Amino acid sequence: MRHYETIFIVHPELSEEDTAACVEKFRGLLEKDGAFIVKEDHWGRRRLAYTVKKHTKGYFVLVEYGATGEAVDELERNFKIDEQVIRYLTVKIADSFDEEAMAQRKAEAEAAKAAGTPPPSEPDEVGDRDDDDDDDDDRDDDRGGRRRRDDDDDED
After folding, report:
1. Taking Cα atoms as reference points, which of 16, 105, 14 lies closest to residue 66?
2. Confidence (pTM)
3. What is the DSSP letter of 53?
4. Alpha-carbon torsion 9, 10, 13, 17, what sign?
5. CB 134: neighbour CB atoms within 10 A?
6. Are 48 and 55 contacting, i.e. CB atoms less than 8 angstroms apart?
7. CA-based nearest residue to 9, from 40, 52, 38
8. Contact present, 66 and 2 (Cβ < 8 Å)
9. 3-state secondary structure of 104
10. Helix, strand, coil % (nearest 5) of the chain?
11. Strand-pair partners of 9
């Protein structure tokens, strides 16, 4: 079992009931194939960055789950067949999936949601790196012992 994340965009002109039925259909496909759903996040109706199949808006749904490769293949096959799905993308997050740890994380998130506090954040895998997008965290300033030669550096 591997850890996956799938985002799919549903046709924007469907009613709320039809959209919910569409999402439930795909959740049922995953559960039928033995997948463990960690998180299902409805982003709602949003504007697309570019036109997809003559649509400028879509209803976005993100699903994080643990499943076998066959279950993901079946899910994507159904995405291709269903005309209500405009676009989809599946990403493998990890080669292994710890169902017990994910169940505990899911229970903690639900308990925090019920208590009205934000869910606990995941530990940062990178560590305490500088993350301000100026790339000074990945570069050595000594440039490997080399220095730039100027015009006033004369060799004798």
Report:
1. 105
2. 0.67
3. T
4. negative
5. 8
6. yes
7. 52
8. yes
9. helix
10. 30, 30, 35
11. 60, 87
Distance separating alpha carbons of residues 64 and 7, to the nearest angstrom: 9
Residue 5's closest CA among 38, 31, 34? 38
Length of the chain in terms of residues written: 156
pLDDT of 126 over the 60 cut: no
The amino acid at 30: L
Consecutive H or E run containing 29: helix 16-32
pLDDT tens-digit series, residues 11-70 = 999 999 999 999 999 999 999 988 888 889 999 999 999 999 889 999 999 999 999 989
* Residues 22, 9 contacting (CB under 8 angstroms): no
Give the number of other CB atoms < 10 A from CB of residue 57: 15
Give the span between the Cα atoms of 97 and 68, in whole angstroms.
10
Q: Are 92 and 3 in contact (CB under 8 A)?
A: yes
Q: What percent of the chain has pLDDT over 70?
A: 74
Distance of CA 78 to the CA centre of its chain: 20
Sign of the alpha-carbon torsion through 49, 52, 54, 55: negative
